[in-house]
Please model this.
Amino acid sequence: MNQESDKKDTLEILLDESANLSINQIKGLLDKMNSAELAHSLESSPPKQRKLLWSLIDNKDEGDVLADLGDEIQQELLLDISNEELSEIVSDLELDEIVDILQQLPENRMKMILGKMSSRDRTRIEQALIYPEDSAGGLLNTDVISVRPNHSIEVVMNYLRAQDELPKNTDKIFVVSAEDLYLGELSITKLLTSDVNLTVKEVMETDITPINDNQDDKEVSTLFERNDLVSSAVVDKNKKLLGRITIDDVVDVIKEDADQNLLGMAGIAEDTFQPPARAARSRVFWLSMNLLTAFLAAMTINIFEDVLKEVFFLAVLMPVVASMGGVAATQTLTIVLRGLTLEQINSSNLSYLFKRELAVSILNGIVLANLIGLITFAWFGDITLALLISAALVINLISSGIAGIFVPIILRRFKQDPAIAGSVVVTTVTDVVGFISFLGLGTIFLL
Amino acid sequence: MNQESDKKDTLEILLDESANLSINQIKGLLDKMNSAELAHSLESSPPKQRKLLWSLIDNKDEGDVLADLGDEIQQELLLDISNEELSEIVSDLELDEIVDILQQLPENRMKMILGKMSSRDRTRIEQALIYPEDSAGGLLNTDVISVRPNHSIEVVMNYLRAQDELPKNTDKIFVVSAEDLYLGELSITKLLTSDVNLTVKEVMETDITPINDNQDDKEVSTLFERNDLVSSAVVDKNKKLLGRITIDDVVDVIKEDADQNLLGMAGIAEDTFQPPARAARSRVFWLSMNLLTAFLAAMTINIFEDVLKEVFFLAVLMPVVASMGGVAATQTLTIVLRGLTLEQINSSNLSYLFKRELAVSILNGIVLANLIGLITFAWFGDITLALLISAALVINLISSGIAGIFVPIILRRFKQDPAIAGSVVVTTVTDVVGFISFLGLGTIFLL
Model:
């Protein structure tokens, strides 16, 4: 069996324009996919094909597919869906999915769609819309099963058996008071293995802290990971049970965070097949910032006009020193960013990290200084030049270690995302220090 | 409630050397943590403190903590644990965890530890050790509950109730033949809501394809995500049920992949608090490669000796053009890497992506050419120089788009990880093209 490569082939056939598939053939391929696979096909399509595929997706699947798409593509498709259609499409979705989609819309469009819903749905959704997208409240669903503490296990079992089916990922039910206050929880497997004559109160677990509705979604994913949760209760500040969060939504949070970290390092925020104008816009800010800082580095070079005019080889070699600093700084920056993301770095271990980075810079500085010195000597046959570039390299690697540690930490303290602004700042530092150290030493020893 | 910041405080207190905690105070803090939190504390500690903390962790928790640690730190701690101790520590772990730890050990040490186990355990572990770490087989656990198709739901319920407790994350049980062949599965919630007089055969689901033991772990995580699974059966090529994979292990795979992608882009593979010598070693290869390619760029500059000696400002401005190309190429590379990782890019949509990147390069080229031209003119008051640097920038941005697309795709075709080698190759291309286009145009128009 090789499910994945079958899927890949289907996708490739689907997107191959030269295959010239008929509408019915495409529909046939789409009908074999579940909503997540359909969403993946849309995400793998250039904009034009994407619209075609979307138009051929079965109406009843549209809501689930829309919910599975990334924010960028959701926004794009939402432009082509009428309000009537949208309110119908979303009606069958889970609460967190509806909220996620509505949050993509402009205020007045969102209100119009809410207006088309039943007042019960509207109230429920409006309550959920209060929460920021990246809070526990933004992830919660209200499809919980809750029971009272005094019931016997047998009563609970009978109650469950009377249901047509239980909500997806129901691995536990929650125990609440008459006022809906969270008292504890009871895992389904515990229910299955307990004496049916015991009461819920006697069997339930009470040592699990439920998630608070205003907790950050990254905290939620940490809690799920550390405790291997499948679902967790969400309560408000008065401990009233609001709903639950399930692992499938947490996996989405984890994937999205990783994606943003990766793209953030390159200063972009776009989906893979975004049309050129939008993709260009997503990248131009970062490029412009780099242009300005590159001119800062150029101004540094300009200071050394005298020595550069005298010793031409310095111009040839100066980008080598700058480039090495840039790479080393990016390495330190990446380690620090990862440590910050995983919440491993705090004030008590920062000094170790700083000393460690200095030590790494010096160790690699010695190795690479030899290498750069040898190559330079082999090329130019000038021992002074070789020693000088070696010294400049060590200086620049040390500066890269210092910048790589402190730039992200300072950016974070000023509430900036270090993944996004970090790289441009550290490479500016290493460019400037690289040029100053190399050309400065050149001025001293070669003029 | 704010669990996370409480935890963070505990960690910070724990690692704060100036707090001068007594051994008993540290033990008190550690005793309040679960195994995942203990593992996080170890991962957040510099090596010396890490050894101290490890020595203070309760013996009964050592196995779980070890299993929760990253590979690098596992290896480090394993050096200090005797074979007797280790075989005892791992004995209570799940199969995939034991295998994961044993795979860190040198061959002969692994054999000695296996020799200390009961022959039943040894056989079970040796069978699991056959699988590569990144295959479905490497993730599987044998703690499955399986039933026969002809039993009634009532019999199954009674069987389950006779168990002390069910394995963690049991959301379904598997239906097998007398020869242990996989026939279907039965979710626990379905079991709870079904008529107890029906047979397993009548209620079980048969349209779910189980995972094959030699499937890649990334395929497994895609299947879990797309189908919102909590657990899945794993079978061999004859459809014999081998065990199951659970979502907690899949979350670890997702996190690890994301981590490797992020670190790979910077050419490193290390844990956050790795001692300096190991950290330096993890980074020096990439730095050396960059040194060699930087000299390639320097050799390009050297070709233009005549014009550089004549027109000093070219030396000042040339790093600007090269740097812009490097940033633009990294942006394209990142988008392509992400598309490859998410399996969105294939032969049928590659040509769109290529044309899109060209369009983005030209669009941003126009915007940035104006900016770079203006700044250059403002600085040097030389219209030819301004036009020339603008043209060189456009050329280099176009080359960055082409390199950013094709380098990762070609690397992947040659079975190299594009995340690791990609960045050094594309920036070399843009450095070289940047210098040639700018200095080449300079030679033509300024000499």
Summary: Chain A touches chain B through 133 residues (CB under 8 Å). The first helix of chain A runs from residue 3 to 15. Chain A has three domains: 3-134, 146-247, 276-446. The two ends of chain A are 72 Å apart (CA to CA).
